[in-house]
Design goal:
With 337 residues, the chain is α/β, with parallel strands linked by helices. It has two domains: 144 residues, Rossmann fold; 169 residues, Glycogen Phosphorylase B (Rossmann fold, 3-Layer(aba) Sandwich), CATH 3.40.50. 34% of the residues lie in helices and 16% in strands. The chain has a six-stranded parallel sheet with strand order 3-2-1-4-5-6, sandwiched between helices. A six-stranded parallel sheet has the order 9-8-7-10-11-12, with helices on both faces. Strand 8, helix 9 and strand 9 form a beta-alpha-beta unit. The longest helix is centred in the first third of the chain and has 13 residues. The radius of gyration is 21 Å and the shape is globular. The N and C termini lie far apart (51 Å).
């Protein structure tokens, strides 16, 4: 008997992109049910996939943004080479993923045929595939690469992640009773819902008998939003910044999540937590959540330059979503049946 096919999936992008990759990983397993399927991701991303069924192993790569950590990374590369993969597929479409595709040494190395990147990037792959159209949803884009393996999107096209069950007790200490979690931050400042709107929502939700708990993001800008919120609503409940694994365990307990277009939005969809997603400058058709229990609210037209991190308009498009709309959407989402 021939040994099972060994496949390495590589993904070095954002947290949300890792969640949106899960339908593709599920489709690989469906196409090759006996395969050995490994995934290589950045260290901070690993908890999102660590407990996902169908994966043989998740490899966390030490990573500092904008700087290689060769001393920490090289032993991992050597271990990956020793696995002797039959195939690798780089879903990240960036220089780091291309170089690691080459270093890991799979016999067949697939990647997107893109004009950008360092000059030798095209030689890192021995199978190059044309990218998907730019208007395709991000969860569908990996299937351009997988089409060469006769792999098609699953039905239903939903994302899936799992929290670490060993952290259930610790999560209960942080969220002892079911509450609605509100995530304040976003990777780009212009995707944040205005803090005065959050304060107004907290007042209205409390009056309606709903308990809200707020969570910050990871960087200093997002932490400053907590101080701004507490100045407007000193009574608000705020969780501290939790590591990724514990945050997932806490989020799994939530009654619902309210957030903008950011990583936790996709986490909630993957954990099947009811979700209110607030959209403004980014297109829902490309970045919308892929869950089963969600409502999407959109603001006014955005006139900012697409790559701008800060809103440049006199009237923020996200501000067009009123606290009353969000509360009504939340009550509808939580209504039995």
């Amino acid at each position: 008997m021939e040994p099972p096919l060994k496949i390495l999936a590589i993904q070095f992008k954002s947290l949300g992109d890792a969640v949106l990759l899960t339908p593709a990983l599920r489709a690989i397993r469906r196409r090759y049910p006996d395969c050995v399927l490994h995934v290589l991701v950045a260290e901070r991303v690993a908890p999102l996939l660590q407990h996902l069924p169908g994966l043989t192993r998740v490899w966390p790569m030490p990573r500092t943004h904008g700087r290689a950590r060769l001393k920490q990374s090289w032993p991992l590369v050597r271990a990956l080479r020793a696995e002797r993969f039959d195939r690798s597929v780089d879903f990240g479409a960036n220089d780091r993923g291309a170089i690691l595709s080459l270093l890991c040494g799979a016999r067949e190395r697939s990647g997107l045929d893109l004009p950008e990147g360092f000059p030798g990037r095209r030689f890192c792959y021995n199978r190059r595939v044309a990218p998907a159209p730019p208007d395709r949803h991000e969860a569908l884009r990996p299937f351009a690469l997988l089409s060469a393996w006769d792999i098609t999107p699953p039905d239903p096209m939903t994302v899936e992640i799992r929290a670490d069950p060993a952290l259930d007790h610790a999560a209960a200490q942080w969220l002892p009773e079911k509450a609605v979690i509100c995530h304040l931050g976003a990777g780009m400042a212009k995707k944040q819902w205005p803090v005065p709107h959050w304060a107004a929502l907290n007042r209205m939700a409390t009056a309606a008998g709903l308990r809200l708990t707020f969570t910050p993001g990871q960087n200093a800008r997002e932490h400053a939003l907590v101080s701004e919120l507490k100045a407007l609503a000193p009574e608000v409940s705020v969780l501290p910044a939790l590591d990724m694994a514990l945050f997932l365990a806490v989020l799994k307990r939530a009654r619902a999540l309210i957030t903008g277009d950011t990583g936790p939005m996709h986490f909630a969809a993957g954990l099947d937590v009811p979700l209110i997603a607030l959209f403004g400058p980014t297109p829902v058709a490309r970045w919308g959540p892929m869950g089963q229990r969600q409502q999407i609210l959109t603001g006014g037209p955005c006139h900012c330059e697409p790559n701008s991190h800060v809103c440049q308009a006199a009237n923020h498009c996200m501000a067009a979503i009123s606290p009353e709309q969000v509360l009504a959407g939340l009550q509808n989402l939580l209504r039995p049946g």
